[in-house]
Amino acid sequence: MAEWGTAPIPPHSSASNGTTHNLTEFLLIRRYWTMANHTPRSFDPYKGHDGQIPPIAPGDRYTVTSDCNDLANANAFLPLAKARATARSGKWAGGMNLTAIAMAEVQTRTCYNGVQNGSLSIRPENSGTSDGLSKMLYLRESRRSMTGVGAFRLCHNIMSASNTGPGGAGCSTASDPPGFTNNGTGYRFLDTVAIGAPQPMFGYDVHVPHWCRLPPYISDKVRTPNSTVPFFIPFRALTVADAPNLLVAGKSMATSFLTNAVTRLHPNEWASGTAAGVAAAMMSALNLSSVQMANNVSGLQTRLRLLGVPLTFNLSVAQ
User: Fold this and answer.
1) Which of 167, 257, 166 shows the shortest CA–CA distance to 217?
2) pTM of whole model > 0.85?
């Protein structure tokens, strides 16, 4: 399979105005916030922080989050009946709650004014909007694959610090051997195609709106430090049952609600996206369905390793 040789990253990228930037410059100019000073601050994710800006190096740019980055009192989406009514009346707005979006804009501006303290500036020229706010809301949830190949769904216990194995309510994982784990990590699947990072500070990082009540099995686990461990993402989680030519990644994977609170983190989205992209290219070139790819997943794993994608952890855990 010589056609699957590793291709180098293009060293240059062209902007829409024809200007050519190297990759580093391109990534920097696309950022939303820019620093006006570079004073180092203490930051310990296990002990909280001093309420100031985390440590940065001169020239760093980063996106700022804070305790006011959740819109807790409104839903950005209209209830289905109201969304249908707007369509029938000719007032369709994508099913979005425009009042909630306006509330989010006000809250974002208020948050920015409260935390920037002269050290941050909004960059409208980078965001592409007149006010410097982002063009789109950040959503922690999405439509997800209900189940993947073999009725598989990735459930929260495979990344739990208590490490209870692959099964569980609503999880069909009978084909997975019990107790297949690594030292200090969650359950390791035989069809692993990506590895996932836990959230030490918050564990299962569910953000709960004021109007939503969670069942006990979720509320008992929400935002407990060190409750999750490094975990593995199997190919089946990237598939959709009865859709043999469709792969999904990130927030759309075949996961439960609670699992998504961990897999939605950006490093895990990147990891699953890489696996899905490589798998899609192979499936297209070799004319394979998702079921066929699942049955020959070792070829995908080999290809990922050749590309430098880690499929295991190198951890040393004190006993």
Assistant:
1) 257
2) no
Q: How many CB atoms neighbour CB 105 within 10 A?
A: 15
Tell how strand 231-234 and strand 43-44 pair up: unpaired
Task: Tell the residue number behind the tokens 């790819």, with chain if given.
Answer: 293
Q: Of 68-77, 245-254, 299-308, which gets the smallest average pLDDT?
A: 68-77
Take residue 176 and report the two structure tokens written for it.
């997975």
DSSP 251: G
Q: What is the pLDDT of residues 163-204, one digit of tens each?
A: 666 666 556 565 677 766 667 888 889 999 999 988 887 888
Q: Check: CB of residue 12 under 8 Å from CB of residue 20.
A: yes
At 171, is the secondary structure helix, strand, or coil?
coil
19 token code pair: 């200007």
Neighbouring C-alpha atoms within 13 Å toward the C-beta of 291: 6
Provide the residue type at 19 as one letter. T
Dihedral class, residue 162 (left if φ above 0, else alpha if ψ from -120 to 50, else beta): alpha
**Could you give the C-alpha distances from 242 to 44, 104, 150, 247, in angstroms and in order?**
46, 38, 10, 11
